[in-house]
């Protein structure tokens, strides 16, 4: 059996080596020529799996080690009787870590506190629902917009996006990209809605770049300049808008979910799916491929303002400013496309907040609830 695998997928040998011969190819370089004698294809989000890629291949299984599936033409797979699997939820915790770290970084930089804000969450799937749960546990007021869920579950727990724009001063987008149907998300945040954002609002997109009208956002930032933006996803990746990039407060190269834990979880989930497809159930456990963190615990003894304590613990695990600065450097050296892709291909080791055990004693024990709510393991002493 031959498997073609994106070269940036971690633990590929450990997960797939026993199933066949592996051919590692950078995701953007996977072409139909590599698949002419392949039985399985394992990708991440940058490989466009469509008719042109699948032409005349003998593929019987395709897996994406990601939550999102809009890069996969599932109708084309069905026509060819190719089995498909994705990894829903694999990196959702990492994306939430990214959002919390980004918001607390802007709060520190611009002189506001998160618990004074109302956060609107657009899309309550794997990521949005986790973000809502963590913010609520941290005492932050949140409102949710999810039209498909509202249609299925009743509208009482949900708001429209226009209500969020009116009532919220932080707006977080976590939707898939859909271009058709009653709940299409393509340019969901269009020029009119961007114009109506409340002055002082923070707009954060860690969903899909095409859900925002980038030209309109650039105009609002360059013109009135009264809102802030955090963008991890962009229209036209990796050929991102240079003018928009220069105006956002935090710019990162589609890495919100790029924790080691999330990547490995995605690899493992697809390995399990392929094993089932082959009729060879796998005994490989996630713990076998996930190494222990370098930093396992942090001890706080003295009282700190809650958000200062949060930033301290978060930055011990992950600091979004590193990713923002790395993208700036790589773009200056190599240009937009290569700089963007180099940051992704050479992304440094990152773990999730849940890998850190925060030990609290003395005055610091009052921080237990907010730290636990943010996703850390907490032990009082």
Low-confidence stretches: none
Total number of beta strands:
14
Side-by-side strand order of the widest sheet: 7-6-8-9-10-11
Order of helices and strands: EHEEHEHEHEHEHHEHEHEHEHHEHHHEHE
**Structural class by SSE content:** alpha/beta
Largest sheet: 6 strands, parallel
Shape: globular
Number of alpha- plus pi-helical segments: 16
Helix content: 25-40%
Mean pLDDT level: 96
Report the radius of gyration as a whole number of Å: 21 Å
Report, as a whole number of angstroms, the end-to-end distance: 54 Å
Strand residue content: 5-15%
Question: How does this model look, in words?
Answer:
- This protein has 16 helices and 14 strands.
- It has 381 residues and is α/β, with parallel strands linked by helices.
- Helix 16 (368-374) links the parallel strand 13 and strand 14.
- Helix 4 packs across helix 5, helix 5 (126-137) packs antiparallel against helix 16 (368-374) and helix 14 (320-334) crosses helix 15.
